[in-house]
Design brief:
- The protein is elongated and about 90 Å long.
- It is an alpha/beta fold.
- Strand 13 and strand 14 form a beta hairpin.
- It is 38% helix and 16% strand.
- Helix 1 packs across helix 3.
């Protein structure tokens, strides 16, 4: 078959996906798409962050509808096979599938990019439909119209993957972007030959299509629309199932179910369901190791690109979010399309669209450890972040002083934090102090799993540092007090038996065998002074 017309490559690709030990069956999306075919709602655009399963789903859709794939051997085993409409639609359509992230060799201009697409489409149509009389210099939409008129109203299913890819190329100008939108509009809008148009990408289309060019598309984003929400990303139940497979497959499982939640959970659909980053979950289970899989494909510089647009407005937000404190924001996903982000809400909106932040109930936050690690790297490495960078740089020294019971240095660093021009540090409540303490212990995240407000014994504790890279290292329990003493904080740690978190289950050897250190930090609002006290709660085992 052709390059774009009825290609069988999509079927081969999707079949390999299905054979993966950690494949998740999301074929019921097809049941919903079937109802859109040849209706007035047959233009669909679904946007999600990178590596959230968009291309997998595009391959699935093309494989199902294409008359060239003969894909019953795949789909007969999947959920869609039980649908009443299954047999009536599988393999019944001519499909145009274009991965718009493919560039010509040595591509240096938009003209080269779009000419490759146009030429391949014309070539495919000429070969498949010779009676249409298509000429080499015909516009692509005229060629499709000729096929429609010459071949008994021939219609097509269009699958366009990564529609916004070209916007991120350095050689693309604003004029090019406008011409590209016009190309998509001329190809698809109001055309009788379109049975279904399905488009995916990261950026919403509405911003670029400011007029009516692409207003026929119904857009489904993670933030604004409930429909299709559970088909992109893995749900809690799906990860549970994958983890059971993992335990069966692995003789020596090193990944815990809680670890998957800590590292890769934290996103939310419009209806409030939690979803995991699918690429990272599959990579962690395949490699039997928790790590930075999604973010490793784009360094922390990618995050900083958005923040550096206006560091002054987002510094305080960064401090709060690093402390797991949600930040109120007016998220407008279309703002992400702007090449000139200036306001706080524009910056945070763009970071939601790209998956760096999650959004729920009017607030944004860092979704999981995978992203938290990248934000930490940014804070430590970027001096343009001012006082936030300075405090983060002190964090390794703060951890060392804590482990060595050097309360003089600990107080010195806390005083340094307080004396910076930080609007956040009003210390009006323990939340303010929590944010700062979390920042000055940022380096601990390299070797510790840091949890806040952890349920322990008979109460709650502000911070627990679990030594995950070396279980023989010291664990830390940290309690904060405003207008009270560090001695009182330590007494609370003892009274509420927080140390039990390090003891393990009855009859089992504790996972963490190093010392457990209690840390009390107090701040007196009258004297504006900090005080620290450190003591060993449990000796090395």
């Amino acid at each position: 078959m052709g390059n774009y017309l009825n290609t069988t490559a999509v079927c081969d690709t999707y079949n390999r996906e299905c054979r993966s030990p950690y494949f998740v069956d999301k074929t019921l999306l097809l049941e919903q798409l079937i109802t859109r075919v040849e209706t007035s709602t047959n233009y669909i655009c679904i946007t999600r962050p990178r590596r959230f399963g968009k291309s997998v789903m595009a391959n699935m859709i093309a494989s199902f509808f294409s008359c060239a794939c003969n894909a019953e051997y795949i789909f007969d085993q999947l959920k869609i096979a039980k649908s009443d409409s299954y047999k009536d639609h599988i393999g019944r359509y001519d499909v145009i599938f274009i991965s718009l992230n493919e560039l010509p060799r040595k591509c240096r201009s938009y003209e080269q990019y779009i000419e490759r697409i146009e030429n391949r489409l014309i070539k495919d149509l000429k070969e498949a439909y010779p009676k249409a009389g298509i000429q080499e210099d015909d516009a692509v939409w005229d060629a499709f119209s000729a096929v429609y008129n010459s071949y008994d109203s021939k219609r097509f299913v269009f699958i366009l993957d990564e529609w916004d890819f070209i916007f991120h190329r350095d050689f693309v100008t604003q004029k090019d972007r406008e011409e590209y939108i016009d190309f998509l509009s001329n190809l698809l809008k109001g055309k009788a030959y379109v049975s279904l148009a399905y488009m995916t990408g990261i950026l919403p289309i509405a911003k670029y299509s400011s007029g009516s060019e692409l207003n026929m598309f119904l857009e489904y984003t993670m933030v604004s629309e409930e429909m299709y929400g559970d088909y992109f990303g893995f749900t809690e139940a799906e990860v549970d199932e994958l983890y059971e497979r993992f335990l069966t497959n692995q003789k020596d499982p090193r990944v815990t179910r809680g670890g998957l939640r800590l590292w890769y959970d934290g996103y939310h659909t419009k209806q409030g369901e939690r979803v995991y980053n699918p690429r990272s979950v599959v990579a962690a289970l395949t490699n039997n190791n928790l790590g930075n899989y999604w973010t490793s494909s784009g360094p922390y510089d990618e995050i900083f690109y958005y923040i550096e647009q206006n560091t002054a407005q987002v510094r305080e937000d960064l401090v709060k979010m690093i402390s797991d404190i949600p930040v109120e924001a007016n998220v407008c996903e279309y703002a992400a399309s702007s090449m000139n982000l200036t306001t706080r809400d524009e910056i945070l909106s763009a970071m939601v669209v790209y998956g760096f932040l999650s959004f729920e109930k009017g607030c944004v936050q860092i979704p999981n450890k995978e992203l938290m690690d990248r934000f930490r790297d940014m804070l430590i490495k970027e001096p343009t972040l001012g006082y936030v960078h300075q405090l983060a740089r002190q964090s390794a020294r703060m951890l060392k002083a804590t482990l060595e019971n050097d309360t003089k240095v600990m107080v010195e660093i806390l005083e340094f934090a307080h004396n910076t021009e930080v609007p956040l540090l009003n210390y009006s409540n323990e939340t303010d102090l929590t944010a700062v303490v979390n920042l000055v212990y940022l380096a601990a995240r390299d070797t510790y799993r840091v949890e806040r407000e952890d349920k322990s014994g008979i109460g709650y504790v502000d911070f627990i540092f679990y030594p995950e890279t070396d279980h023989t290292a010291d664990g830390i329990i940290l309690e904060l007090k405003v207008n009270d003493t560090p001695k009182k904080a330590l007494q609370q740690i003892r009274d509420r038996k927080y140390v039990l978190r390090f003891e393990g289950k009855l009859g089992e050897r504790p996972k963490y065998t190093g010392r457990v250190i209690g840390v009390g930090i107090g701040y007196d609002k009258g004297t504006k002074k900090h005080a620290c006290k450190v003591e060993v709660l449990r000796d090395r085992m």
